[in-house]
Amino acid sequence: MTSPDPKSKQGSDGGGMLPALLAGVGILLVAALFFFGGDEDEDKAAAKEAAGKDQASASSRTASGSSKTGIAARRTDDAQPSAPKPRLNPRIANSMVGSGMAPNSDKPEEPSSFESKDEEIIYWEDELRAANQTLEMRQRAMEHIPAIEEKIRNGKDAERSLAEFEKRKEVVEENLEKAEDRVKTIEEKLEKLRG
């Protein structure tokens, strides 16, 4: 007499409650995704990315299928017209390069006429002080040239560096000459004014 075995009966019915429970949880998860799913922007981005991948794979297939193969197209980022603009430090904003190659100068132009002789003398004395300061800077720069040249001679790749240094040295010498000429010109004007 065979009595029905409870274990064999469960196997033939479909497995009991566990598969039904898992199926119910799966249905609830799918429903939750539909109701509380992702953002539309994310969906659009995902669709755009998928389209880009399809396009890239199609172009790579056509490139590999032809006899003249090259580099397959790659996915590119979309243009960002609202890219942030760089912020400038106000201290250096005025020294930005203008239409020419030299930085913009805030120095006012030299006046062509003065109300009195004393006012003109005061103006040129101020200009002479500024010109003397510039001349001192240029002279200090010339004093540093021998030490810099010695460092370059002892450094790596001395020949190339010396060629570049010679160009810079010429500019320093020209600037010194200009500063000396400016001081001399202003002193001559002051001598004529003082008479």
Provide an overview of this structure.
68% of the residues lie in helices and 0% in strands. With 195 residues, the protein is mostly helical. Among the domains are: 20-62; 115-194, Helix Hairpins, CATH 1.10.287. Helix 5 (117-154) runs antiparallel to helix 6 (158-194). The longest helix has 38 residues, at 117-154. The model has no long low-confidence stretch (mean pLDDT 76).
What are the SSEs and their pairings?
Elements: H1 6-13, H2 17-35, H3 40-65, H4 90-93, H5 117-154, H6 158-194
Structural class: mainly alpha
Count all strands and give the number: 0
Portion in beta strands: under 5%
Give the helices and strands as they follow along the chain.
Answer: HHHHHH
Return the CATH architecture of the domain at 115-194. Orthogonal Bundle
Rg, nearest Å: 41 Å
Low-pLDDT segments: none
Distance between the termini: 146 Å
In summary, what is this structure?
The chain is mainly α.
Considering the chains and any ligands shown, give keywords for the structure.
195 residues; mainly alpha; Helix Hairpins; 6 helices; elongated
